[in-house]
Amino acid sequence: MKYNKILIVGGIGAGKTTLAKKISKKLKIRVWELDNVVWKKRDIHKQNKPPIRDKKVKAILKKSKWIVEGFHNHPWTYGFYKKADIIIILKVKPFISKLRIIKRYLKRKLYLENTKNVNKSLKLAIALIKGVEKRSKRHMKIQKQIAKRFNKNIIILGNNKEIKNFLEEMKKWNT
Predict the structure, then answer these.
(1) Closest CA to 12 of 85, 117, 102
(2) Is the pLDDT of residue 88 over 80?
């Protein structure tokens, strides 16, 4: 089966960016992060205005191949669900998400990770950690509902073993 348009969704710290980069490397398809579409310099307090955001969304959707990762539950994202050949939903335990948020914060603060245009505030990290429990189940339910609405091929991955198996299976794609 040929998958040229791939949408990866999941909560904060689910591993969306990591998985998107791995798939991108194997399939030679560019990755777009929805956070970079929504936020100016990925600052939680500075969103792009809707016309700018929508222009970016349309430009991505026009491409013949894309990997989009992120989760924003707004109608402007539905085009990605509609046009995706496959939707990958990452389901991670809240405890794991919290650990990953802490790890990400520390990497950014210590400049061990590319930190250009990234919010590195402790306040943001704490807010994300506090919200994980509340959002985890609700986001999973919403993601499944939206994907089913567009009657798409959906894969739910819940742990590293499933992701590893998925990446092995993916080698058969686009051949």
Answers:
(1) 102
(2) yes
DSSP state of 29: -
Query: What is the per-residue pLDDT across 11-32, written as a single tens digit (0 to 9) for each?
Result: 878 889 999 999 999 999 999 9
At 66 the three-state DSSP class reads strand
45-63 residue pLDDT tens: 678 888 999 999 999 999 9
| CATH assignment of 5-92+135-172, among 3.40.710.10, 3.40.50.300, 3.90.1170.50, 3.40.630.30 | 3.40.50.300
CB atoms within 10 A of CB 38: 21
- For β-strands 66-69 and 31-33, DSSP reports them as parallel
pTM value is 0.81
What lies within 8 Å, CB to CB, of 51 at 6+ separation is none
3-state helix, strand and coil shares in percent for the chain, rounded to the nearest 5 = 55, 15, 30
Strand partners, 5: 66
